[in-house]
Every structure is written in structure tokens, then in C-alpha cells.
Amino acid sequence: MITPPMPLFSRSFGHWLTDTAIRSFLSAMRSLPYETRINTCGQIMTKVIAPLTGNRRRIRENLALVMPELSAEAREAIVREVPETMGRMLMEMYSAEEFSARVATYPIKGPGLAALKAAKEEGKGAMLVTGHFGNYLAVRAALLAQGIPVGGLYKKMSNPYFNAHYVAAMEDFGKPVFERGRRGMSGMIKHLRSGGFLGIVQDQRINDAPVMDFMGKPARTATSAAELALKYKVDLVPCYGIRQPDGSYVIETEAPVPHATAEEMTQALNDSLEALIRAYPGQWMWTHNRWRGAGNDTSEDRAQ
Description:
Blueprint: H1 8-30, H2 34-53, H3 55-66, H4 72-93, H5 96-103, E1 108-109, H6 112-121, E2 126-130, H7 136-145, E3 150-154, H8 160-171, E4 177-179, H9 182-193, E5 197-201, E6 211-214, E7 217-220, H10 224-231, E8 235-243, E9 249-253, H11 262-279, H12 299-303
Parallel strand pairs: 1-9, 2-5, 2-8, 3-4, 3-5
Antiparallel strand pairs: 6-7, 8-9
């Protein structure tokens, strides 16, 4: 039986109602002291949202696929930590002023910072690449405090009411931000060519992208970041915000990936992120169906 499409009025009202609930939740959280709201949002995501959405099952599926050596105890610790990381990041995004003030005091490590500062002095742009790990907004906030604003790329949300304040929240960590797609790509290229810095979250599955190795399994991985770095002759710098046990962050900026083929550079990005995930597995968003459609066969895939 084919379900008829929802009338536009009903769909718009549903979006409005959903966004009203989200805004009410965020407003209630922001009324709490900073540390309390961050911790509370993390716990709500772990104990309420994750069980309701089935995220725990997805995390277990992915861990079984690429890290089968984990003990049951280690696996379940990751299952609990991942949604907590996601919840904390959400609230940090919507606490931009306080979060950014804290991030400005956190250490920035690695050779990438010197490369980015040199690029700025030369009037060149740079590509910064990260993953859904720790909090990538900490990278943008830290570099903004260093006088290096980093533009961002985002996927437009289907709920236009939510999308409006989501984009505004992204802009609090550096402008401009560009919508993923043809129109956003045009603006992004102009920004890069004019000497701007651009941050891309690399670890999403793109259905028609080349298949590369990620965590020892084939995964479709876009080569666009490497292609842009090659075309416009700018550095490609892996950067990460690594959460510490006390809730602070260390900003890790790795050496620029040497220019080679786009495929070789993209594989280097996969390898860079993999090393961090294996070191801090609870900080990566295992809820993505990262390996689907690349020759892997999980029990979830077989069920669909």
C-alpha cells in the first residue's frame, strides 16, 4: 500500500511543532549552569534518546564489523559513551559563547597550526578536514581565537524551522558556512580562492564515492577535499577536538597531507581518523552506517 504524501500544511505544522519542542528543550538546558547543562544533555542522550532511537544497536553492529576483538565490557562502555559525546556536542554547539571562551584557553598541538598561520600570512586558504569525532566545533572555535576564521559546510535539514537556528549556531564558530550542494559549492570555491579557510567533516558515506579502506573495511569516501586542495594548491590539514576526562579539549592539528593523487590523500585522511578512533573509540559517532553499500554485509543490512 502506497502512503499518500503528507499535505504541505500538515507537514509544515509538524515541522513547526517539532522545532518548538526542540527549542523548548534547548532553552530549558541553557537555563542551567554551563557544566550542568553539558553533562545533563549527555546523560539524556545516553539514557533516553539512544535506547528509543535504536542507536545502540547500530553502534554494536558497527563495532562488531570493524572492532570484533573488543570484549563485551569494552564494547558496552563505548555504546554508553558515544551518545554521551553526541549529547555534549549538541549542547556545546548551542552554548557557543561560553564554550568558545573555554576553548580559547585549551592547548593547540601539532605542526598543523604553524602551517595554517603561514598560509594566512601568505594570503592563501587551506582545507581543514576532520570527522564526527570529539567536537569538531572546538577546532573552529580554537582557530577563531587565533585569528583564523574557518568557514564550514553543512547539510540542510529537512525541517526548515530547525535548519534556521542550526545554521545560526554553526555561524557562531566562524563564517561563512555553505550548504552542501551546487549553490554552496560555488560559494565555497570563491571563499577558498580568495584566501579563506574551509573546514570539512570527511567521514560521511557518499553513495557514488570511490571505495577506500576505513578501519580495515571498504567504505565509500568522497575525494572532494583532496581534489580542492590539489586544484587550488592549498594545504590539506587534519584537525580534531579531542575531549579530555575533565570535559575540556585538546586541539590536535596534524601536518598537512602531502600532495599526491586525490585518492592517496583521501586514504591518508581515513588513516588519520582511524588512528584517533582506535585510541578514543567512544568519541566517534558510530551511529553512522559508514560501511554500507561498499561490499560489507552486517546483520542490519541483511534485515533490510
